[in-house]
Amino acid sequence: MDQQAGLYCRSREVSFSLQLSFSAVLSFMSLASCSEDFENKNYTVITSQCKGPRYSADACCNALKTFACPFADLINDETNNCATTMFSYINLNGRYPPGLFAHMCREGKDGLACPANTTEAGGPAKSSGLASVSTHFPSTTLVAGFSLFLLLQQ
């Protein structure tokens, strides 16, 4: 009897976990498409400076800031998939391990601080204070992607 009760509890935990994962996937799928074309960006600024197998936090995070700060407003907008898309292409182009930037690049609770003079491609300079690039999105992406993988396997 005790073994059956233990199995029952474990199966409830798995069921609960899958329900949460399914919710994360549905939430992820409801995001608006990114208006920036990250597929065709030049990632050389990152891939030329952030090299393994021993990734330097200074080199990688500075390169990420150089690349991502012009898009900070888009990347930090949680209603679109810009952060997910950008990090997917960064990881694809650099063949980086999952979560590399999320684990290394932290300057505070809000992510990386972008300089006030960061400009968008062809756009005006940012005029007020510091923007920030959140590095927390890759974790969300990994959870949602893995959850989708699990759901598709059933």
TrEMBL record:
<protein>
    <recommendedName>
        <fullName>GPI-anchored protein LLG1-like domain-containing protein</fullName>
    </recommendedName>
</protein>
<dbReference type="InterPro" id="IPR058888">
    <property type="entry name" value="LLG1-like"/>
</dbReference>
<dbReference type="InterPro" id="IPR039307">
    <property type="entry name" value="LORELEI-like"/>
</dbReference>
<dbReference type="Pfam" id="PF26578">
    <property type="entry name" value="LLG1"/>
</dbReference>
<feature type="domain" description="GPI-anchored protein LLG1-like">
    <location>
        <begin position="37"/>
        <end position="112"/>
    </location>
</feature>
